[in-house]
Amino acid sequence: MTVTLFTELDLHESLLDALRDKGYERPTAIQAEAIPPAMEGRDVLGSAPTGTGKTAAYLLPVLQHLLDFPRKKSGPPRVLIVTPTRELAMQVAEQAKELAAHTHLDIATITGGVAYMNHAVVFSDNQDIVVATTGRLLQYIKEENFDCRAVETLILDEADRMLDMGFAQDVEQIAAETRWRKQTLLFSATLEGNAVKDFSERLLNDPVEIDATPSRRERKKIVQWYYRADDLAHKTALLCHLLKQTDVTKTIVFVRKRERVHELVGWLREAGINSCYLEGEMVQAKRNEAIKRMNDGRMNVLVATDVAARGLDIDDVSHVINYDLPTTADVYLHRIGRTARAGRKGSAISLVESHDHLLLGKISRYLNEPLKPRVIDTLRPETRAPSAKVTGKPSKKVLAKRKEKKEEKLDKDKPKVKVRLRDKKNIGKRRTGKTAAVATSAAPPSGKGDD
Ligand code: AMP
Predict the structure, then answer these.
(1) How far is CA 53 from CA 26, 43, 158, in A?
(2) CATH 3.40.50.300 residue ranges in the chain?
(3) Which 8-state DSSP code applies to residue 342?
(4) Which residues line ligand 1 (CB under 6 A)?
(5) What is the pLDDT confidence band of residue 366, given thresholds at 50, 70 and 90?
(6) Domain 6-211, CATH 3.40.50.720 — does that match?
(7) What is the DSSP string of 120-165?
(8) So what family is this one in (predicted)?
(9) Using CA atoms, how far apart are residues 308 and 330, in angstroms rounded to an integer?
(10) Could you tell me which of 34, 42, 58 has the C-alpha nearest to residue 207?
């Protein structure tokens, strides 16, 4: 049975109220698939990039469990959620607090970037759910400041990123420290590659596997195109023009390097466009402030690097603009996934200089659909589009040759019918319809007649 409404999910009234407050009506695909088995206590291995609703997919079952089995007296955390970045930890905790708003449950975070003593509250008070990043959590565990023995459910969010960032050992250690747990939920943007598979085989027990990678059709909700630019100044002019359009209501502008973040914020300011930014070296309070300004609508342009924007969840992003094209198609997909979240529409625009065309070809091939160029009349490029040789796009002649080769190969691959000598013998004159009919009627009616 496919679940189409949250009310079909056997959730506590207080959680349904919170869902109503948040305006969630229907579960997303990952929620519909992951919530029932997770509520039965099964381990879950979920393939779900951000934007699919994976956070609520694991939060709702654990909140329900905490409500179903309330503890008699306060104690250490019963649910531990581990994330690769501080931002993600804070966003998860924020969602957990919103979903638990009508309950008595307590949620805390343990992350780096916060004064060590500020976490004292985590240990002195009752906590039900703790959301943590690996480094600081392990530090507390080692100093015996964090008690893992009460953890019943361990959740690993964005496991692939944790592995990419070199946290595999840390996570394994956390899993060993929480060995008394009854359930493990692991979510990863992809389950491809041996690393995540190996990891999940060691940590999970007979998990239900769920794949909520957005389908091609869902991805189509993101309209994608590009503009050709002559140089940096041209790219900036294109960006300013785009940011001034009325339908461009909330935008994340991606750049490749930290230095470019600051330059670009300055150039935009000169053009009368205010923006906030995120880059890796920023202090936590400033990062939080930038995200908050975007979320509450005080600011509608955010300039960010990929590293700084990891795990970021900003509501209602109408446009993602690649001021610098990313170096891999994978990162491109990750960037554009910031828009068109939870079923809404979005646009992804790339600004492309001639040296980016090879990359553009690579991205198009990965997406399995060519990105289409557009032109702004007042900002047409003066340089010519690079030739097919540069873009890696095959010319018509090459395509025709490829087709011919393919057909030849098909012919070759056809099963060969053996022509026997006896079949060739006495073929004689080809029969016409009439002679054939005569011949048939002249022949004995069946094998039996031969006897
Ligand atoms: P996530 O994949 O957990 O990062 O969620 C992506 C976005 O979708 C977040 O902004 C959520 O608030 C939103 N969201 C999650 N579940 C739902 C739902 N069932 N209906 C509408 N929006 C949702």
Answers:
(1) 11, 18, 13
(2) 6-211, 216-391
(3) G
(4) 24, 26-28, 31, 50-56, 313, 315, 341-342
(5) confident
(6) no
(7) HHHHHS--SEEEEEHHHHHHHHHTT-S--TT--EEEE-SHHHHHHT
(8) Belongs to the DEAD box helicase family. SrmB subfamily.
(9) 16
(10) 42
Q: How far away, in angstroms, is 206 Cα from ligand 1 center?
A: 27
Average pLDDT score over residue span 61-88: 92
Q: Using alpha carbons, select from 137, 127, 152, 129 the residue that is nearest to residue 38.
A: 152
> Is the domain 216-391 a CATH 3.40.1350.10 member?
no
Query: How does DSSP classify residue 297?
Result: T
Pocket test for ligand 1, best of 19, 54, 55 (most atoms within 8 A of CB): 55
Dist. CA 90 → ligand 1 center (Å): 15
pLDDT score of 301 more than 90: yes
The CA 173 to ligand 1 mean position distance, Å, reads 30
**415 Cβ contact partners less than 8 Å away, ≥ 6 residues apart:** none
Q: DSSP letter at 395?
A: P
Q: Indicate the helix (H) or strand (E) that contains 81.
A: strand 79-83
Atom of ligand 1 nearest to the CA of 342: 8
Question: In the predicted model, what is the mean pLDDT of residues 288-304?
Answer: 92
Tens of pLDDT along 130-154? 999 999 999 989 888 888 999 999 9
Nearest-CA residue for atom 7 of ligand 1: 51
